[in-house]
Write a structure and sequence with these properties.
Blueprint (H helix, E strand, L loop, with lengths): L1 E6 L5 E7 L1 H4 L5 H15 L58 H17 L3 E4 L9 H11 L4 E4 L6 H7 L5 E4 L6 H6 L2 E5 H10 L2
Parallel strand pairs: 1-3, 3-6, 4-5, 4-6
Antiparallel strand pairs: 1-2
Length: 207
């Protein structure tokens, strides 16, 4: 079991906390994490790219020339893919890029992502993430004092509204409730900041 110091927003030590080996102490598997990131990014891909096929082109369907004697191919339409302005063969169509990934694999990948952060000593545990006012300048000063500039903050069941508002204008800061924790957001930030409530909720979730 891993023991980490808990700090408050003003930078003072506020006790310690135990992190479960079943969640934070696994040997990270890059293949599992990669599968989960691919699953997430594929699921959110728009898939709205589209070309016009020959039946959607507004051009004449009249035969271009005589059937015989022209010395040219026997074309019957100007909409075909061989002509400029015609349709497009085998082009992209509107579709979903999402694919399936078993629920147990998704859950395991999250534990491996958390373990990778723990192994790299990139987890910070806060006593709480509650700001008294929704001021970006205040939050920016707190993060600078804690030495954090690229961070994902995971709060309890509901993220503090002042923290959400204050973080919106900071480019490398994400704030999520514990239900929103995900592999991609964990990996795209240098540090993972968990509140006590978030750690307790994760223990309960993976119990």
């Amino acid at each position: 079991m891993m023991k980490l110091d808990v700090v408050s927003l003003d930078g003072n030590k506020a006790g310690s906390i135990d992190l479960e080996d079943e969640i934070f102490g696994l040997e990270p598997r890059a293949d599992l994490i990669q599968r989960m990131v691919r699953y997430q990014l594929s699921k959110r891909q728009a898939g709205t790219h589209k070309v016009k096929n020959r039946d959607e082109i507004a051009r004449t369907g009249a035969k271009l020339g005589k059937q015989k004697g022209g010395g040219r191919a026997r074309h019957g339409s100007a909409r075909v893919v061989q002509f400029r302005g015609g349709g497009r063969a085998f082009g992209p169509l509107v579709r979903s890029h999402a694919h399936d990934l078993p629920k147990k694999v998704r859950a395991l990948a999250l534990r491996h992502a958390l373990s990778s952060k723990a192994k790299a000593s990139e987890i910070v545990v806060l006593d709480n993430a509650e700001l008294s006012e929704p001021k970006t300048k205040t939050l920016s000063g707190i993060l600078a004092k804690l030495g954090l500039n690229s961070v994902l903050v995971i709060d309890g069941a509901a993220a503090n509204s002042n923290m959400l508002l204050a973080s919106r204008n900071l480019p490398n800061i994400d704030v999520l409730p514990v239900q929103g924790i995900n592999v991609y957001d964990i990996l795209r930030r240098d540090k993972l900041v968990l509140t006590r409530a978030a750690v307790d909720a994760l223990k309960e979730r993976f119990k």
